[in-house]
Design a protein that fits this description.
22 strands; alpha/beta; three-stranded mixed beta sheet; Glucose Oxidase, domain 1; 15-stranded mixed beta sheet; Aminopeptidase
Length: about 550
């Protein structure tokens, strides 16, 4: 643990004392809210549905019962303008000119969508180019698009970073730790900047860090995008994923070896490969519906420094109706992800109200559209109700652990900010240790709402119960809980279980409470460590520039 937190540049002795014991964290509150939000009556809590309306009303009621004040000029809500796009009448994604035509079916073989706010999408006979990992990183001297013009063409892209197979964190893209360049969001953004008509990612479970079931459930049905004056017409017409086996067939039909080209793409200086004579076509209708989703904001005003803010966040949304389970159940209830985190947010608010306000104000932010690309948190970060320059730090809660008491926490983004020092001292008080993310290849720090605030300079902590159980005899239970989590993630069977063990959630919330009280009653302004990608942004923000 010492080695982990010294990397943040803070000695534990220099940190404020962590002496306050948290009021009892209400397990009953977490159970009741999780059970309610994940019930079929809330229809999976998709933005823009009746499930959202029920969720918003319920959360405002629970925030008020907890003792918070409305956080947006007397309102509990912040409008988040969104557009819901639902692909309909999807034709097969077809490749011709590579031997026999390859026609991929929507959902089972491929998924396709568009960010463009327009009723019809058609890409016809588009030239196909393999662009490796689809990365253009000038600061690293890496450009997979160098020397090739992909305007109006279809680019085929590998998921993750070129060095994802490393066993260490050494490499041009952080070794086995996924960077933002490895995320599908970045790859589609860069393809659009390059002028590609379509961008297709090859799904591979290991580098993607999730199976095809997650892709299928997440990308079929309504897709949310932020509303924009240009209707996102600067984006590629079509973006999507194809299954690995079909990608290999495509490459072979084009006279290319998938494994050989994938290996070549891992080396700096890789040159994109046009698939001569190969054309891609796909078309679908877009059902377009503009609507305003909402973030829910509660505040516990500070006593002596009310214009300085500590932020707690969790996303309230989930996928709504999705690919049915074998029993026909098509409601993605999202009990763990993230009714549990939303329930924890309310329970943490209750504990802080009972303890009394801190010197600084505390914000409790339940955001929308995380599942659609962190849209709610990004909107707040772009349109903050309370200035980000005056936001001291934040803690994000996304999916609480139900595996039982642990001896450690896992820190996503360990070593990035000075918050590590506050975490370390709070852990000493709990008698727990800390470990870095055991799966940095999953890019966890870039996949949840803390990233929206981090990339705008606010130091954000993401630490949650680790895998070392306090009771070794419960290891079988932990393994079973993990299997269940994997099998139900983003599916209809992420449902409330009355037999869950909430002790780890209580541990974690007590930790967040302790850190929040120290920061809330202190005068420090934690920063990112020197050299971190977000340090300059924070320095500029705090300087008022």
């Amino acid at each position: 643990m010492k080695r982990l937190f010294l990397s943040a540049g803070l000695m534990l002795a220099a940190m404020p004392a962590h002496a306050q014991t948290a009021p009892e964290i209400s397990v009953d509150t977490m159970k009741e809210i999780t059970k309610t939000l994940s019930s079929d009556a809330f229809e999976g809590r998709a933005p823009g549905t009746p499930g959202e309306e029920k969720t918003l009303a319920y959360l405002a009621e629970r925030f008020a019962q907890a003792g918070l004040k409305p956080g947006n000029n007397g309102s509990w809500f912040q409008d988040v303008p969104l557009v819901s796009l639902t692909a309909q009448n999807v034709t097969p994604l077809t490749f011709t000119g590579a031997g026999a035509p390859i026609a991929l079916r929507y959902g089972t073989d491929m998924v396709i969508a568009s960010y463009r706010v327009t009723p019809k999408i058609a890409v016809k006979d588009s030239d196909v180019v393999f662009v490796g990992y689809g990365i253009n990183a000038p600061e690293k001297g890496w450009n997979d698009y160098a020397g090739v013009d992909v305007k109006g063409k279809t680019v085929v892209i590998l998921v993750n970073d070129p060095d994802y197979e490393s066993t260490t964190l050494d490499g041009p893209f952080g070794g086995k730790a996924m960077t933002y360049y490895g995320r599908w969001t970045y790859k589609f953004e860069e393809a659009a900047r390059q002028g590609a008509a379509a961008a297709i990612i090859v799904h591979d479970t290991v580098p993607a860090a999730y199976g095809w079931n997650v892709v299928e459930s997440s990308w079929t049905g309504p897709q949310q995008v932020a509303d924009a004056a240009n209707g996102h017409m600067d984006q590629s017409a079509a973006v999507g994923w194809i299954q690995l086996d079909f990608a290999k067939r495509l490459f072979a039909g084009a006279g290319q070896d998938f494994d050989r080209l994938s290996a070549a793409a891992k080396v700096k200086g890789f040159k994109a490969v046009p698939f001569r004579g190969v054309k891609m076509s796909v078309a679908f209708d877009n059902e377009v519906r503009k609507h305003a989703s909402k973030n829910v904001i509660g505040i516990l005003p500070g006593t002596t420094a009310p214009n300085e803010y500590l932020l707690y966040s969790a996303h309230w949304d989930h996928l709504g109706r999705c690919t049915p389970a074998p029993d026909g159940d098509d409601i993605c209830n999202g009990a763990i992800d993230n009714a549990s985190g939303t329930a924890a947010l309310v329970a943490l608010a209750e504990a802080n109200v009972k303890a009394g306000p801190t010197a600084r104000s505390q914000l409790f932010l339940a955001v929308t559209a995380e599942e659609s690309g962190l849209l709610g948190s990004a909107y707040y970060a772009d349109h903050p109700v309370y200035p980000l320059a005056q936001t001291v730090a934040g803690i994000n809660m996304d999916s609480m652990s139900m595996a039982g008491l642990t001896k450690n926490v896992t820190v996503t983004g360990a070593g990035k900010s000075e918050l590590d020092g506050y975490l370390a001292k709070a852990l000493v008080a709990q008698g727990r240790g800390a470990d870095p993310d055991p799966r940095p290849q999953g890019g966890g720090y870039y996949r949840s709402d803390h990233f929206s605030f981090a990339k705008r300079g606010v130091p954000m902590l993401n630490a949650h119960s680790g895998g070392a159980l306090a009771d070794p005899a419960a290891e079988a239970r932990r393994v079973e809980a993990q299997k269940t989590r994997v099998s139900t993630y983003h599916g209809p069977k992420d449902e409330y279980d009355p037999n869950w063990d909430w002790s780890a959630a209580v541990q974690d919330l007590s930790l967040y409470f302790d850190i929040g009280r120290v920061l809330g009653n202190g005068t420090d302004w934690p920063n990112w460590v020197p050299g971190d990608e977000f340090r300059a942004i924070r320095d500029k923000s705090r300087a008022g520039k």
